[in-house]
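User: Can you model how flavin-adenine dinucleotide sits in this protein?
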Amino acid sequence: MSITNLIQLSGGEEIREKVLNFVNQNKPPKVSPEENLDEFVREGLNWQRKLFKNGIIGQFLPKEFGGQGNRLIHEAFALEALALADSPQLPGIFGITMLAPILLKYGNEIQRKFLPHIFEGSTMFCQCFSEPEAGSDLFNLKSNLTEQNDFYLLNGQKIWTSFARYCGWGFGIAKLAGYKAEKKQEGILFFLVELNQSKNIQIKPIKQISGVSEFSEIFFNDAKVLKDHIVGNLETGWKITLETLFIERVLLTFARHIQTIKLLKKINEIIIDEYRREFEKLLAEFNLLRLTAYKHIQDIDQGKELSGESSIDKYVWSEHFKKSAKIYRLLAIKTKDKTIIEDANRTFLYSLGRTIAAGTSEIQKMTVAHRVLNLPRSF
Ligand SMILES: Cc1cc2nc3c(=O)[nH]c(=O)nc-3n(C[C@H](O)[C@H](O)[C@H](O)COP(=O)(O)OP(=O)(O)OC[C@H]3O[C@@H](n4cnc5c(N)ncnc54)[C@H](O)[C@@H]3O)c2cc1C
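Assistant: Here's the modeled complex, given as structure tokens:
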């Protein structure tokens, strides 16, 4: 049976139909990031541009920026329909799902000018949050901004920055140099930085176990950040940072359902009776986590401030993806097909990273315990 019939869709019929018609007339690129990352980004950006120009993505972007003037839930419908129609993950997805909602809410006029470029892929942003001493404990960050006349000088190191070497810009956080903070979260500024400052910014790719270098280290050495490119201010810096993380855990995770749908399709193609029951459980769980995500996306649309609930989406999705990848690997071995086995091995290794990116499973579980279930801190 086709996977489309197994995944229960509800709502967004008009968008789904539009996506299907578009994809039938314009074939999506086929390159996978594991095969050729450069080509995946190049072809993916062309595809992203087409999708934006034809009103498929950019659903929640106001019309004045070339979008459709709808809500986040419509973007989710579009992304899901694209996944079912075999569209690849969009290279500019970090800017679209994390930065764009933040700029719409907190950005000034200059910063909002990035919005159409983020969607059409002409400006790709990476997320410069994590540092060697600040991953789970993000507010332990050491990068700092020193105030000059109409700009700041940025110094410090970021790490695990996905797609950095393909990006012209980064959004990130740093502490204001010299600020006497009483609490860890004080003195944080959320900035946009142009990465094309070769004398002051060095991007060093990190080779992963899969052989691909999807992420990099970034070294900032007196890099320039314009004051106009500070989103919010010293009072709101930490709040905007947390909000970005919450949106990442809901909306970026939802965009990653593309990967689950692709994986479930692959499992469906080689399923054998021995694993059928397990596969049905995976499908049922996937439907549940999709419905939870729908609810949280609609909550954001209605102006509800998300907090610990966002960790449910990220935790359940990444653990489900890892479980699916394990089953794909077991099934792949049974096929004795070298290409399928290699693909399954790559997918399994990739799935391990997903339980770390955007906050580890341990941290997500703790967040749910404290912020959703109100369990005591010592638990
Ligand atoms: C594929 C991938 C892509 C990424 N992309 C980006 C990106 O684009 N931009 C970006 O900024 N970052 C990115 N990251 C970084 C990611 O956000 C961090 O790796 C993650 O937050 C964990 O931080 P850490 O690696 O420093 O590990 P640590 O925080 O050092 O954690 C190490 C281990 O200790 C556990 N641990 C830590 N604190 C606690 C605690 N209090 N209680 C219990 N256990 C704890 C963790 O769960 C983990 O198992 C990416 C990571 C991966 C794997």
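A couple of observations from the model: Residues 273-301 form the longest helix (29 residues). The chain has a mean pLDDT of 94.
User: Helpful, thanks.
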